[in-house]
Amino acid sequence: MIVCHCTNISDHDIRSAIDWMRKADPRTIITPGKVYRALGKSADCGGCMPLFLDMMRSSDNLEVPMQLRALRAAVSQESADEGRSKSHRISQQISAA
Asked: Cα(first)–Cα(last) distance of the chain, in Å?
């Protein structure tokens, strides 16, 4: 089935690109942009994106690798405090000194 008429990409092309990327690097995060690049194409009008994403999600090899799944929780925890001390305001630091 043709998914993108502008660039002539089929559902088979998308699945093949995902399988190829997963074999080349088992820990890679696969995005639509990477699929387009693997096929030597680029997005044009974007009208196909909902169907393109549905085709990607239907692939068994799209999953985020197990080693990378815990990273999101770790990053969100780091960004919660941003490495700042409790009193990060200058006025609080001066009065505490």
From this structure: 69
What pLDDT band is residue 95 in, cutting at 50, 70 and 90?
low
2 φ, ψ to 5°? Answer: -75, 125
Phi, psi of 86 (to 5 degrees): -60, -40
Residue 63 has pLDDT above 90, yes or no: no
> What pLDDT does 79 receive?
56
**31 contacts: CB under 8 Å, gap ≥ 6:** none
Which amino acid is present at 43?
Answer: A
Q: Which residues pair with 9 in a beta bridge?
A: 4
pTM (2 d.p.): 0.66
Q: How far is CA 31 from CA 14, 34, 53, 77, 94, in A?
A: 11, 5, 9, 24, 48
How many Cβ atoms are within 10 Å of 43's Cβ, its own excluded? 17
